[in-house]
Amino acid sequence: MLFLLFFFIDFFCFALAKQWLVSSLLVHLFSVTFECCEHKELSVQWWFSLIFFLLQDCFLHGRFGLALLYLLPLFTFALIIKKMIRGSGELAVPALAVLALLADQFLVKKLILSQNVSLLMIFAKISATLLVTYLILLGMWGNRSVRALLARERKVWTPNKRGASREHGFK
Questions:
Q1: How many domains, the chain?
Q2: pLDDT tops 70 at residue 14
Q3: pLDDT of 43-81, one tens digit each?
Q4: Residue 114 region, left (φ>0) first, then alpha (ψ -120 to 50), else beta?
Q5: Residue 137 and residue 88: Cα distance in Å, rounded?
Q6: What domain range is 23 assigned to?
Q7: What is the distance of C-alpha 131 from the center of its chain?
Q8: Cα separation, 69 vs 73, whole angstroms
Q9: Predicted TM-score (pTM) of this structure
Q10: How far is Cα 125 from Cα 118, in angstroms, rounded to an integer?
Q11: Which of 32, 42, 138, 163 is the most exposed place for a label (fewest CB within 10 A)?
Q12: How far is CA 114 from CA 106, 137, 138, 141, in A?
């Protein structure tokens, strides 16, 4: 039911700012994509997140399913990245969210709907989305996402004193 919270957060921010600045449901959708075990076993939460994002996009553009033009290639790209890095996607989720926002602005709004696109508004949306992305990832994955970005600890095996002395012939 986390997708409903993000759905209402997006609408609340839309009601306050009179602009669509925050896209937390999109970020949640990409983070759930990286959490699923395999692409054949997509969770129910992923499907509901996708449906609510398409509903949100329908409210924004007036056409249901228009976001699938850029979401389907990004999801296949996300599954390929997931197989390559075999990680939780600390850097892939924000990058995919930014690519989705750029595709939404330039592909859907500029080319298909013939609306004017403001570069300042694109920068504000990307900034807000990156901030929300790191807050969501910090909430979903805990401090692991921040710690993994800063430094990876190297674990070295050291034998105990008793085992080391017997192996080397010391008494």
A1: 1
A2: yes
A3: 788 888 889 989 988 888 888 888 888 999 998 888 888
A4: left
A5: 10
A6: 2-167
A7: 12
A8: 8
A9: 0.70
A10: 11
A11: 163
A12: 10, 34, 37, 39
